[in-house]
Amino acid sequence: MPRKLPPLMSLPAFEAAARHLSFSKAAAELNVTHGAVSRAVRNLEDKLGIRLFDRGTRSVRLTDAGTAYAAAVGESLDRIAAATMSATAARPQRTLNVSTSDGFAGRWLVPRLHRFHRSHRDIDVRLSTSGALVDFLRDGIDIAIRYGAGGYEGVVSELLSDETVSPVCSPQLLQGDHPLRQPSDLRHHRLIHDNFRIGWAAWLEHAGLDGIDPESGVTFEAAAYAVEAAVQGEGVLLGRSVLVSADLAGGRLLRPFDLALESRWKYYVVYPEGALRQKSVRAFRGWIFDEMASDRGKI
């Protein structure tokens, strides 16, 4: 007996509109116009013979029937996405699409990537550094490195590394008229800031220091630029252990005193269920864990 199905092309628009309670946000997510979403939803309502949304002047809300239908449609689309990912995982793949943040890419991943290429010449890495959470299937991402509190839903999430923050500087700041030898010497040096969640105010309080303005100094939106400024001797950075690991190992930066704060945010390797069936994903995952373990042995 043939299935009684709704207009399938309308379902993604309805599900996105129901999730956001906004036709405009659904349109932005699907990269279509507001009108296209509105027409798709209206077409679905006409075919079903029920009203899915109550439409206001500036807002929409789901009807009781719409709420129940949205839950079922969302679950069905998730299953289709997972099945698609599983079905395509077994095919040969030369290009590996990796997503991560700009800071992690610039200060940790890219300087080491040649070692992955040397061992896996048949795999081309395509790196996306938006830092935004991705829809793996829609955005064509195979594996991601995320920085956060973990608990990513609907995907496999493995802890890659903890992180601590502590002052780091160029070796040249240990010389001159005001050598940096103890925490109180920071008052003679410029503070470098990035957009990290733990700032100088927290570290100075932890160190029991007062009389130093935690907002003073130079600020960079991108962590990679903040690290480079510290390497060039522009001041003292509250360095994130993972992002400064290569510069510490190479002697371009050092920790002038051993007083660190542990961050509750950590690095995770994230990928869809079934992705490890793909040779390239499996190879990259293994390599990045090995590289991170090697870092811990050097610093």
TrEMBL record:
InterPro entries the record matches: LysR-type_TF_proteobact-type, LysR_HTH_N, LysR_subst-bd, WH-like_DNA-bd_sf, WH_DNA-bd_sf
DNA-binding among keywords: yes
Keywords recorded for this protein, A-Z: DNA-binding, Transcription, Transcription regulation
Domain (HTH lysR-type): residue spans on this chain: 6-63
Keyword Phosphoprotein: no
PANTHER family associated with the record: HTH-TYPE TRANSCRIPTIONAL REGULATOR, HTH-TYPE TRANSCRIPTIONAL REGULATOR TRPI
Family in the record: Belongs to the LysR transcriptional regulatory family.
Entry protein name: Transcriptional regulator GcvA
Lineage: Bacteria, Pseudomonadati, Pseudomonadota, Alphaproteobacteria, Hyphomicrobiales
